[in-house]
Amino acid sequence: MAGKAGALLERGATAVHRLISRQVPSHVAFNYCLALPRFCTGNRRLPRRPVHPRATLNDIIFHRMIRDEWSPLQQSCVDKEHAKAFAQARAPGVKVARTVAIFHLQESTGMGEVAAWLAPYLGRKLVVKPTHSYGSILYLDEMLETRRLAQFVRYAKRNFFHAARETQYRHLKHKLIVEENLAPDQRINDYKFSCSDGRVLHGRMDVGRFTPDHRRALFTVPDFTIIPVRCGGLDFPDRIVEPPHLAEMIEISAQLSRGFDFVRIDLYDTPNGVYFGEFTFTPSAGGCSYSDEGIAIEMARRLRAASAEQFPQKGIEALAPGIGGHEPAVTALEKSALA
Prior knowledge:
Blueprint: H1 2-23, H2 28-43, H3 57-65, H4 72-78, H5 80-90, E1 99-104, H6 111-118, E2 126-130, E3 138-139, H7 146-156, H8 161-164, E4 175-180, E5 190-196, E6 199-207, E7 215-219, H9 246-257, E8 263-270, E9 273-280, H10 293-310, H11 332-335
Antiparallel strand pairs: 1-4, 2-3, 2-4, 5-6, 5-8, 6-7, 8-9
Helix pairs in contact: 3-10
């Protein structure tokens, strides 16, 4: 009974937060206040300034995301449709899931319209997900229940900025993308590499994502030594084996991160090679918990050191969106991700 009451209370608080967030404009002070609940839940404290000696990676992420100073290229790379094209152009060795179809969502779009659009793809080894957010996916070779589809459409029509004030999502077009399913049995491992302008700082391995048995481990690069910290409250995988294409994934991450002061490159290691997942500029909105804060502090220290070395005129200010990176000129394709 207590568990159900707690869940209802949490859902109610989330709904109230979303309602308030939709009414409040983007400003660093408002964004700070509305991003605070998730940060405090994950870190059990208030944010520290990025220059604080005990600042963690989460503190740097938090202050980046509330400042709404992203370049058009950074915002474009958050869009899952355009990010794939950019990734292949920058790192020709990486593969991408084949895009099958794109659907542009409007405020008036109903579940019936989405169901009719998806009808030709049902029963095939494909997935559908929003291009402008994360955490929601439908497997089209499974039974598509009406209730689940209605929830998915409601989620996809939201402006993801309102969830945690991750400002890079604020102006993105709302679209659905149907693409090939890289993991028909849903057991593909995710590998995520935190980087600073071509330097890979550390990696993360997610096993069984989108399943009840989701587990996670952080590791060093290039030697794949497991970092002794639990991340996001998840247990370590029962079996941890160095991925077959680790060296290739590290090289691809270095290529894709060049010009970005901080970005996490998400990849998949499959029998058919390395596939691109996405660019992530504010992982977990700074709310990912660490069982040992000392390790998270060391992560921030290494990022600050990399920033100071690569952007000596800016130092820690290079970690502000759009300031430190030497991003290439924005093309029409990249700009088209924006509303």
